[in-house]
Amino acid sequence: MAGASLLTLIDDIATILDDVAVMTKIAAKKTAGVLGDDLALNAQQVTGVNADRELPVVWAVAKGSMVNKMILVPLALVISALLPWAITPLLMLGGLFLCFEGVEKLFHKWFHSASEQAHIAPHKIGQDERNALEINEKEKIKGAIRTDFVLSAEIIVITLGTVASASFSQQIAVLTGIAVIMTVGVYGLVAGIVKLDDGGIYLTKSKGSDIIAKLQRKLGLMILGFAPYMMRTLSIVGTAAMFLVGGAILAHGSPSLHQLIEHTGNSLSHGLLQTITPTLLNGALGIAAGIATLTLVLGIKKLHAQLKTK
Q: What is the DSSP letter of 166?
């Protein structure tokens, strides 16, 4: 009798694990788009770091990402149970923050005045070089972790929607599984991307005159030639992803706006235009929201500075 009870228990556990695996797979498929944006954004965030500090920076951001998810998973479960109406507004705030960060980044890149540069330069020249690099590194890590928080929140909410009808224990298992898989997957790939040039250098040093050694050296040279272009592309894609993801979050938070965007895409006859138009409109919405938010923030800062001088 005890043996039969044990077999029943094992069968029940196996069934639960199978259900969790199926739900995790479905959730992973639904969050794949955000995963791609997360990858591009984080690879872009750690560019410009010294080669010997790339992996430590990726590791620091990965730890921050896991902390984000350790906060977000229980928080999402609590909010879903007690304040389900608050999930959408909170997500929209996160989306607005992404749009703001994207526009602010472009603003500082394109519109920094010569006087601002002159003001910044003496400060940097007077600093110890190592301290300046450490400050830059810490800022990159903080920025990457902030961005990861918003993207992780979207991943968790999408996953929670997938397992809404499951039991509480299954929800915890799936959310935890997705959090671990996404973190390991994204930052494992980011680490591989930022060290791609090191792999190329390693291959170019292959010794020997046989066909394998020659192919390795050629492959290494190709990687070294390709890596800078890929990093520039990821920088562009990462910035664009801020607007696309942020705009999509804002659009999904407003049913009428989301329907308008979808209807605009469906009204086009060409298949490719039908596919890309909603994405482009989400990006345009993200840019507009980012510009509006940055304008508001700059206005508040200017007003605050004027009040301080009085």
A: S
